[in-house]
Design a protein that fits this description.
Layout lengths: L17 E3 H5 L16 E3 L4 E7 L10 H16 L7 E4 L1 H7 L8 H14 E5 L15 E10 L6 E10 L1 H10 L2 E3 L9 H14 L4 E5 H8 L5 H14 L6 E7 L2 E2 L15 E6 L21
Antiparallel strand pairs: 1-8, 2-3, 3-5, 4-7, 6-7, 9-12, 10-11, 10-12
Length: 302
């Protein structure tokens, strides 16, 4: 007999992985697996953006928890592409989520997923960023509720997930439905380390159809949510530059007005506040010149 549950599932996801551009440009998540209850307040006066993130009891949602939201956004776009009506409630199997996000099923993976759902519900976000033409005074959680249906294993007595039900927050739902600024991810994103995930998202959100873009080192450090000192952040990026293909589809160059820093020889001393970071598309490297690549941060301000 056909499982009645399968008739109401939104999974499996068949399209490509996508996410809202705002969720890629700005950081709302912890980059650490250690419990953190409050993230540093992010403010960019030039853009008029402010983001506050805190949680009680669970710790704030992490960059790994974020992939649950990416998966749900992709499910939503799948349904829209098929001409189906969408709501803020989604039902999916843990197996499909693990498949799409390249998570090894079994072991503690189900407990990890439940922990992610708990943090996504327990995290409070307060921001003046508007979505779908609307703003919110107050705070919201990424998901307003979740439910895990399970069955008991007759032999072991353990729980086995049957399906997961999640109610998505208004803020993100409006961004996906109304703003239409959804960008496709390279599936290799899920294999990246936390900071590399954020660097990839920033590159993906800003490069678009251009060969590349530049941004000030310190502004980038705050944008991706890194707690490194600026000097160590620069050293980290220099190591990625030396790898050439550290990010899927994009590469990183560091430099200043005098040109690009070299990874194979000593470089001139340049104040950290003058260091610029360039992201370029690997398929358009021949089109990219440091001297004439425009600064394409949102307001053109490095």
């Amino acid at each position: 007999m056909t499982d009645q549950l399968s008739l109401c599932l939104d999974s499996p996801m068949l399209g490509r992985v996508k996410n809202d551009r705002t969720m890629m440009v700005f950081n709302f998540f912890s980059l650490s697996r250690e419990r953190i209850d409050v993230l540093p307040v992010f403010e960019d006066p030039s853009l008029g953006v402010r983001i506050e993130v805190r949680a009680k009891g669970t710790g704030v949602a992490t960059i790994w928890d974020k992939q649950v939201l990416i998966y749900i956004a992709s499910l939503m776009l799948d349904k829209i592409a098929r001409g189906e009506a969408v709501s803020q409630r989604f039902n999916f199997t843990a197996h499909d989520y693990f498949r799409v996000c390249r998570v090894s099923a079994g072991g503690s993976s189900y407990d990890v997923l439940e922990g992610a759902l708990e943090r996504l519900q327990g995290t409070q976000v307060k921001t003046n960023i508007e979505t779908g033409g609307e703003g919110e005074d107050g705070a919201f959680s990424w998901i307003s509720s979740y439910k895990i249906q399970y069955r008991r294993d007759k032999d072991t007595g353990g729980k086995a997930m049957k399906s997961v039900t999640v109610d998505l927050c208004d803020w993100l739902y409006r961004a996906i439905i109304r703003d239409g600024r959804m960008l496709t991810y390279n599936p290799a994103y899920f294999d990246l380390a936390p900071l590399e995930r954020r660097l990839y998202e920033v590159a993906r959100a800003h490069c678009g159809n251009q060969a590349g873009f530049r941004i000030n080192l310190e502004k980038l450090r705050r944008r991706v949510g890194s707690d490194m000192e600026s000097k160590k952040f620069k050293q980290y990026l220099m190591r990625l530059q030396a790898k050439r293909h550290a990010l899927p589809d994009y590469y990183i160059l560091l430099g200043h007005k005098g040109g690009v820093f070299r990874t194979d020889r000593p470089n001139p001393r340049v104040p950290l506040k003058s260091v610029m970071v360039m992201f370029g598309r690997t398929d358009r490297m021949k089109d990219l010149l440091w001297s004439d690549t425009p600064i394409t941060d949102e307001n053109g301000d490095a």
